[in-house]
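Format notes (please read before filing issues)

Several people have asked whether sequences and structure tokens are stored in separate files. They are not. Every record keeps both together, in the order shown below: the sequence lines, then the token lines. Line labels are part of the format and must not be stripped during preprocessing.
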Amino acid sequence: METLNSAVVLLDQWGRLFCNCAGRMLVQSSILVGLFLLADSFLRARVCARFRYGLWLLVLVKLVLPPSLALPTGITYWLGDYLPAVPAVSVPPAPAVSLAPITYVELLGDVMAVPVGATQTAVAGRGLVALQWPGLVLLGWVAGVLLLLALVLRRVASVRRSLRLSCPARRQMVELLEECRADLGVTAPVTLRLTEDMRSPCVCGF
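Then the structure lines:
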């Protein structure tokens, strides 16, 4: 029971860190997507599609960067000279060492925040600590990621199976493809295959 309660408390702590990071990332990426939508609507008839697609790749770059406001992706980095300084916070003195027996919840409380109600329940009745909403959010996010990953892997396997069962295109179609590739300036090799599994033309690979 103590091991399970420790895992629940640790999951709640990770959930709080995740919600803090994900919340800031959501705000910053939403602002960036809104700005790119405006830029894309303005540049659609003025620049080539390759440039616009490259512009949208910056959103992916933003998502892999930490959401700290001290980075060039944050507002504070550019407006730091105009924002008021944060006053220094005095550090309280270290608590006195007690020789009384320490429960597992009190030991974990030194390194992580534990709700008062959950601590009292665990200490008094040795019952199961209730999972808080940050932990539930983290579990839901992990479950969603695993589900999407499974769907992507299934789709990749389906495309590979269709390619394996497909047949080469006719010579006339290949020549037409080469002409289109030259007109578009595509230098990477492109293979044309025919299959009955697809309902419409599609592109796979990078």
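For reference, the curators noted about this record: The first strand starts at residue 167 and ends at 168. Confidence is low (pLDDT under 50) at residues 97-114, 116-125.
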